[in-house]
Amino acid sequence: MWWNPDLGKNIAFAPLVTAILYLGGCVNHPTDAQLEVWRKEAIARNAEIVANHAQKTQQHEWNLLIQGETAIGKSVTLNWQQLQALATDHVKTINPLDIVNPGEVSDFRGIQVSKLLQQHGVTTKVTEVTFVSFDSYYVTISLQNLLAYPIMLAIAKNGNSIKRDQGGPIYLVFPYTQYPQLKQNYNDSAWAFYVSNIVVGTEPVQVTVGKRKFDLASLDQLSQITINQTVGYRGTWPSGKVKIHGVRIRDVLALAGTQLPERGKVIVHGKAPTYQNDTNAVLLPASDVRNCDILLATRWGDDRKLIPARMGGPVTLAFSSECQAQTSPPRWVTFVEELIATP
Ligand SMILES: Nc1nc2c(c(=O)[nH]1)N[C@H]1C(S)=C(S)[C@@H](COP(=O)(O)O)O[C@H]1N2
Ligand SMILES: [Mo]
C-alpha cells in the first residue's frame, strides 16, 4: 500500500466522495488522469497527517496570524492568551466531522470571525477571506457570508479545549444547526482543523531569499516560463491541465546572489507552519533546481490572472513534467514565502 495503513482511514477515498458531490450526484467514471491527481492528493494528505502527529506544538504556543489586505496592512499575531480573552462567543451546532457522536449539538466557544475582521479592518477591494491550517490545508469564505453569519474560530467545545485529533486548538466552525443553508456553500470540507493564519483578500507578493525580499515587479524582471500541467495543489484549482506562469527557482536564486551548492538543497517555506518542521520540510535537490523547471508561480490561466489566496497565492511552487519524475513526491507548496539554499 502506498499510504501508511495505520493512518489510512479513508484518506484515499475522501477526494472521490468530494468529486462525486461536485458532479451533483450523476455517476461519472473518473479518468486515469483524475485518479492520478486524487492519488497524489491522498499521498500529500497522508504526509501532512504524519507531520501533524510528529509536530507536537503545544496549545499554549499556538498563535493566530492575521494577514493580507487589512486596514493596518501588516501581519498581526495573536498569542494563545490573547485568543482566550477574545473567545467569548458561543455557537451551538452539530459538527459534521464528529464521528464519535454524529448529529449531536456541541457548544463551541470561540471568536466570531466578523468581530476579528471588524477589529482589524478590511480594505474595500476585499471579497473573501482564506483560512490556512497548520498542515497547509486552506479554506476560503466570502466576506459577505462572514459578515452575515456567526462563523467562528472555536477554541473550546462543551467547556473543554479542542484536542488536536478533533481539529483543535483552533477549529473553523459553521453554525449549521441555526443556518442549515450554509451547507450548500460550505460543506464538511470547509471545517478547517488547526487554523494558524487568516489571510484577508490576497497578500502582496513577497518572497524572501537570503537577505533579499522580492516583490512582483522584481520577479517580473526575470524570464517568464509557462507550464501546462495537472497541478498537485489540494483544493480550489481546476482539475486537468492548467497553465501556470512564473519564474525559475534557479533564476530567483541567481537574482538574490545566492550560490546553490553542488549537492545542496533548496528549502521552500510556505505559510503553513508544517513547512518549518524538519521532518516535513520541502527540499528541492540542487540537481532538480538546475536541470528542470521548478517555478515560483505568480499567474495562471490563458489570461495570466494573478493567483489569489483562494488558490494558495500570490506565490505557489510548480513543477514542470520533467521535474515531477525526479522530485518524488512533488510538493506543490502554496503561499510560498521563503527560499533557503543549504549545503
Ligand atoms: N486542517 C485540515 N482541515 C481539514 C482537512 C485537512 O486535510 N486539514 N480536510 C477537510 C476535509 S476535505 C474533510 S471532508 C474533513 C475531513 O475530516 P476527517 O479527516 O475527520 O474525515 O476535514 C476538513 N478539514
Ligand atoms: Mo473531504
Description:
With 343 residues, this protein is of the alpha+beta class. Helices cover 24% and strands 29% of the residues. It has ten helices and 20 strands. The chain has a five-stranded mixed β-sheet with strand order 2-1-10-5-6. Strands 3, 4, 7, 8 and 9 form a five-stranded antiparallel β-sheet that branches. Strands 12-11-20-15-16 form a five-stranded mixed β-sheet. Strand 5 and strand 6 form a beta hairpin. The longest helix is centred in the first third of the chain and has 23 residues, at 32-54. The relative contact order is 0.14. The protein binds the ligand Nc1nc2c(c(=O)[nH]1)N[C@H]1C(S)=C(S)[C@@H](COP(=O)(O)O)O[C@H]1N2 and molybdenum atom. Ligand MTE is lined by residues 14, 45, 97, 133, 135, 137, 188-189, 191-194.
